[in-house]
Amino acid sequence: MEKVYIIAELSANHNGKLDVALETVKAAKDAGADAIKLQTYTADTITIASDKDDFKIKQGTIWDGRMLYELYQEAYTPWEWHKDIFQYASELGIDCFSSPFDKTAVDFLEDLNASRYKIASFEITDIPLIEYAASKDKPMIISTGIADYDDIKLAVDTCRKVGNNDITLLKCTSSYPAPIEEANLIMMRQFAKDFNVRVGLSDHTPGIVVPVVSVAMGATVIEKHFILDRSLGGPDASFSLDVKEFTEMVRAVRDAEKAIGKVDYTPTAKQLNGRSFSRSLYVVEDIAEGEVLTEKNVRSIRPGFGLHPKYYWEVLGKKARRRLDRGERLNMDDLV
Q: Residue 256's pLDDT is what?
């Protein structure tokens, strides 16, 4: 199977400090992540400063009661850090890319030679943004956390309209943290069938069970929020994996890949060796030359070195060409 591309989402887990951000990049590399992902926005590019009720969070989240502008001022990754983070990731040999939240962010990330673009769940309805990002002809990863079928189809069609067919849809539950019973991973297979795309997972559930199970559902990408230590705090700390947990997830995902394997009927060396314990036809009572083979003197037993049991009915009634001793493998050459 295709190797799963594992993304460590930095998000707000830098705690407002560049040195923490860089340390997190190094820790993600050491934990086995294939990529570190940023979010490229400012409070002003993603919303406006307003005290109107519409801009107050009240959707049953961990951020309820806060104003959007205030939250994003706290959570954003300063744009002046991006170059240092991208450069450090390159030096370490880990991919670095980002989620843009407006056209200016796409232009900024183009200058940094971002390898791909990730559209966040809440931006799946921002068709102008998707079209602009997709027009850069780089792989598109799109989360589906708030989307229905029509939203997803429109996003996929928008990418294809500008000639971009390198699309991965991520199953996502936009709750923070997300209940495991709402993961609904079976939808990944449906995405692949309905939209002819690669699929993956953007996960906000606690622990590593859901990411590991997603591998069996065909995930080619797994994204998980990553933090050096949850004691750092911050808007995303409660649903992020720490270094130890992320390392365990990567190991478990790689083991899951090995377990799934590939479609191949050819027995492995161990399977072939194990066939010695299978059934085959043996002489179980001494048989004199010319004596008839019967159910009494021939049986299908372990081990598997004798004649295949499929010949059982064929050999019954034949006569022994020579004396056959109890415990001998049955052989067609010895029968007439």
A: 96
